[in-house]
Write a structure and sequence with these properties.
Strand content: 25-35%
Number of helices: 3
Shape: globular
Helix content: 10-25%
Order of helices and strands: HHEEEEEEEEH
Largest sheet: 6 strands, antiparallel
Distance between the termini: 63 Å
Number of domains: 1
Radius of gyration: 19 Å
């Protein structure tokens, strides 16, 4: 009889506590482009968390809405919202480690797959987010990976050993050009 009550309580405790890290093998750039259903550059206009589900399935989801600046693959429309597992509602926080955190005003290029179907709808979880940041020294926009590190070489994503300065980082236009080239290469390869 006690087991019936312990299991739901254990599930609720896990749901409201921090979740353990997920091990993700970083995808290659080619895999990022190929697996993504949508790739877009956008600015976060809204972030809000809500309770979802009932009983033992009750959990917190966070909805992040982007104003789309440019559709790179697929068509996200003028505005697009992704759903992430976890967040804070009132005094309750459900944290999922390795899940990207967004705030209003963030500028990102996202590689989206299976939105509303998986706990983080980005290819390779944090690997599918490229943050656009202004380099204060050069005054140009540069790309940072999901870990907040400048990206210089797309062939070494998740595998780059040496530290890269923001001055050496690629620009958003260089990243989008590489995506377009990869899409063209994939189309040529599949037509052969």
């Amino acid at each position: 009889m006690k087991t019936k009550f312990i299991l739901p309580l254990a599930i609720i405790a896990v749901a409201l506590g921090p979740m353990t890290a997920t091990t993700v093998i970083p995808p290659t750039f080619e895999q990022l482009v190929q697996q993504a259903e949508l790739i877009f550059q956008g600015t976060v206009t809204d972030v809000h968390s809500v309770w979802e589900g009932e009983g033992a399935q009750r959990h917190i989801d966070t909805y992040v809405t982007f104003q789309i600046g440019e559709n790179v693959k697929g068509n996200a429309g003028a505005s697009y919202t992704i759903r992430l597992l976890g967040g804070t509602v009132g005094d309750k926080t459900m944290e999922v480690t390795d899940t990207p955190k967004f705030k209003i005003g963030d500028r990102d290029i996202l590689f989206v797959e299976h939105n509303n179907e998986q706990f983080v709808p980005l290819v390779g979880i944090n690997n599918g987010r490229f943050h656009v940041q202004r380099d204060e020294q050069t005054g140009r926009d540069v790309i940072l990976n999901g870990e907040g590190e400048p990206v210089r070489d797309l062939t070494k994503l998740g595998r780059e050993e040496e530290s890269v300065s923001q001055a050496d980082a690629i620009s958003p236009d260089q990243l989008k050009s590489a995506v377009h080239k990869q899409l063209g290469d994939q189309a040529n390869h599949s037509s052969q």
